[in-house]
Amino acid sequence: MDLTGKVALVTGGAAGIGAATAKRLGKLGAKVAVVDLDRDGAEKVAAELQGLAISGDVTDPDTMPSVVEQIERELGRLDVVHLNAGVGGGQAGIDDALDVQRYRKLMGVNVDHVVYGTCAAVPALRRQGGGRIVITASLAGIAAMPNDPLYTLSKHAVVGYARAAGAALGRENITVNALCPGFVDTLLLGQAKEEFDAVNFPLLTPEDIADALQAVLTDGQPGEAWIIQPGGQAGAYKFRGVPGAAGQVPPDVVLGRA
Ligand SMILES: NC(=O)c1ccc[n+]([C@@H]2O[C@H](COP(=O)([O-])OP(=O)(O)OC[C@H]3O[C@@H](n4cnc5c(N)ncnc54)[C@H](O)[C@@H]3O)[C@@H](O)[C@H]2O)c1
Predict the structure, then answer these.
(1) Alpha carbon of 170 to those of 87, 112, 223: distances in Å?
(2) DSSP characters for 107-118?
(3) CATH code (residue 111)
(4) Are the beta carbons of 217 and 190 closer than 8 angstroms?
(5) What integer best gives the mean pLDDT of the chain?
(6) Could you report the per-residue pLDDT of 94-118, keeping only the tens digit for each?
(7) What are the tens digits of pLDDT across the range 122-166?
(8) Has residue 86 been placed in a domain?
(9) What span, in angstroms and rounded, lies between the C-alpha atoms of 138 and 114?
(10) What stretches of 99-204 adopt beta strand conformation (E)?
(11) Number of structural domains, the chain?
(12) pLDDT value for 90
């Protein structure tokens, strides 16, 4: 894959998965904007790939429009958007112990930023006649994680968004995909890392996700959610069809095919 002459942005690009995908996109020839709350981290990654560091809080509705505006002004265009910033739930969220501020923050990063980022990027992608949007969801976007229902909620939300937005934007040559990795060896794991290591649980590496990003940019079809597991080949998850009224298949307009 040759991305020479293309411009990409990666949110959460200062660390973990985002740092790996930003570096991969740079290696493939793209000019990359590294967007993160962590200014020093973003500058460090951007310096490595001669990209552009942009510091900002992606939960702020003004951040992603201003990021896209800056990228078009300074780098001339936008082609590939990796909406990757995310945080863990950190609480159960199933009883009156709910910490509302923490819950709003989780939804702000994991869900709102994906919407703000897509809405800000699509006009810029349209100006290029098309482009790619890849959202880092999680296996928790497809399977339930009983130890983190709020994280499960947020990742199911963005898988649904990717599928629906993918069907809507596919007609305009804008492909939207979700990446759904199992556990990845990054700071997000926190204390769970020690527990995984104690039982030799296999973890993905950020580079595995960079491989999957490259694969989805090559082969991803509109709205597909790709599963990534250690030792396996990344690929599109096959969702079961839903029953329609009286067992009828829903009309194409509902399925986004009309
Ligand atoms: N690590 C895993 O096991 C795992 C598994 C599946 C999916 N994911 C998802 O992968 C994505 C990346 O996570 P990671 O594991 O690399 O974590 P990480 O903590 O290593 O990196 C996340 C990055 O996002 C940035 N960020 C957080 N909040 C932000 C905000 N409000 N504005 C701007 N930047 C912000 C952080 O500063 C950090 O650089 C997340 O969406 C996460 O949910 C992680």
Answers:
(1) 28, 21, 8
(2) HIIIIIHHHHHH
(3) 3.40.50.720
(4) no
(5) 95
(6) 999 999 999 999 999 999 999 999 9
(7) 999 999 999 999 999 999 999 999 999 999 999 999 999 999 999
(8) yes
(9) 14
(10) 131-136, 174-181
(11) 1
(12) 87
Q: State whether the beta carbon of 21 lies less than 6 angstroms from ligand 1.
A: no
Residue where the block lists tokens 């897509």 = 118
Q: Confidence band (pLDDT; 50, 70, 90) for 242?
A: confident
Q: Is the CB of 57 under 6 A from ligand 1?
A: yes
Domain interval for residue 171: 7-255
Q: What residues does 10 pair with on adjacent strands?
A: 34, 82
Distance 151 CA to ligand 1 centre (A): 12
Q: Hey, what are 251's tokens? A: 């009309």
In a domain, 142, yes or no: yes
- Indicate if ligand 1 lies below 6 Å from the C-beta of 138: yes
The residue type at 217: L
Ligand 1 centroid to residue 241 C-alpha, Å: 31
Confidence of residue 218 (pLDDT cuts 50, 70, 90): very high
Does residue 151 have an active-site annotation? Answer: yes
Contacts of 149 (CB under 8 A, 6+ apart): 89, 92, 93, 94
Asked whether residue 1 is domain-assigned, the answer is no
Q: What local confidence, expressed as pLDDT, does residue 245 receive?
A: 80
Q: What DSSP assignment string belongs to 154-187?
A: HHHHHHHHHHHHHHHHGGGTEEEEEEEES-BSSG
- Average pLDDT estimate for 218-230: 98
| Cβ count within 10 A of residue 87 | 16
Residue 2 falls inside a structural domain: no
130 and 172 Cβ atoms separated by less than 8 Å: yes
| Residues sharing a CB contact under 8 Å with residue 27, sequence separation 6 or more, in sequence order | 49
